[in-house]
Amino acid sequence: MEFNAMSPENALSGKRIVITRSPGQGEDLRTELARGAGAHVIELPCVEFRELEETNELDRVIGRLGEFAWLFFTSQNAARFFARRARALGLDFARLPEPRPRVAAIGPATAEAAKAEGFPVDFVPHAGTGRSFAGNFTDCVRSVAGMEVKNPAVGFVHGAAGLKVLVPRSDIALRERGATDWMEALRAEGAEVVAVPAYRTCMPESLAGPQLERIRREAVDCFIFASPSAFENFAKSVGPDDLQRFASASALAAIGPTTASAIRAAGVRCAIESAEPNAKSLIEAIGKYFAGSARPSSREGANHA
């Protein structure tokens, strides 16, 4: 039976889409898929974030925060957990004596999270990922090209040599090549980069629960992965045989190139990769995929099997 392609706006109606983000994160993605696109959203948290068990290293750099020229946040969690620990230590960023660190955030969602925690964001690289930021970093540090500079810091924009930069991160962030690349680019420009764990990325205990078993039994149209960790935890939980089965029967979608690379490294197809790491771009990419696909929805496929 033939299935005609439809417009991207209507292509997700009735599609069963699994979101693997942690609870409380990605609400804009859930809302747009369910209410805006008419998809049936299934929650399967494949990653969760926790406070560090040992905070000595983080506490030391927070105590010396005034020594840094820049504070770089690479994720919403980095901003939130760093701010939480700083408050626990009695530090009020707004009351730090000048010159206090300038604040950079990679991506608009991270910038909003940083602002919500009381950090004035001085610039946001135009490129939304660490990997793409690294690709044009040499140009970025020499001019304002490629950056939305909200509070110009000429010393940084025209050269990073001699600057001390603090990067709070996940305990496993350096496994992700994109993050390493852009920090190495900073170091190559002469900056001193101090990367410090600010939170833990963990596999949820619930991942082995009944929701995963239900997904094994029932057809799914698309799985969305927003980080390599989420995909790796999912792959570990389902095992290699079921991973291949899921990738063949469903579309695996990645929110950016680093996550897409992790999917492909596991030997399965990444069917969808968003152009930018945000909900709007991802939903557009998924809509275009299904609009141009001859595949029926999971429910229709079951009825015609």
Order of helices and strands: EHEEHEHEHEHHEHEHEHEHEHEHH
Q: State the CATH architecture of the largest domain.
A: 3-Layer(aba) Sandwich
Radius of gyration: 21 Å
Number of strands: 12
Number of domains: 2
Name the average pLDDT: 81
| Biggest beta-sheet profile | 5 strands, parallel
- Spatial order of the strands forming the largest sheet: 2-1-10-11-12
Percent of residues in helices comes to: 40-55%
Structural class, from secondary structure content? alpha/beta
Percent of sequence in beta strands? 15-25%
Give the termini distance in whole angstroms.
11 Å
Could you name the CATH class of the largest domain?
A: Alpha Beta
What is the CATH topology classification name of the largest domain? Rossmann fold
Shape: elongated
Query: How many separate helices?
Result: 13
Task: Write a structural description.
Mean pLDDT is 81; it is low at 1-5, 134-158 and 294-305. The longest helix is centred in the last third of the chain and has 22 residues, at 228-249. The chain is α/β, with parallel strands linked by helices and 305 residues long. Helix 3 (76-88) packs parallel to helix 4 (108-116) and helix 10 packs across helix 11. The chain has two domains: 16-47 and 205-303, Rossmann fold (3-Layer(aba) Sandwich), CATH 3.40.50.10090; 50-202, Rossmann fold (3-Layer(aba) Sandwich), CATH 3.40.50. Strand 10, helix 10 (228-249) and strand 11 form a beta-alpha-beta unit. 41% of the residues lie in helices and 17% in strands. The protein is elongated and about 55 Å long. The chain has 13 helices and twelve strands. The N and C termini lie close together (11 Å). The protein has a five-stranded parallel β-sheet.
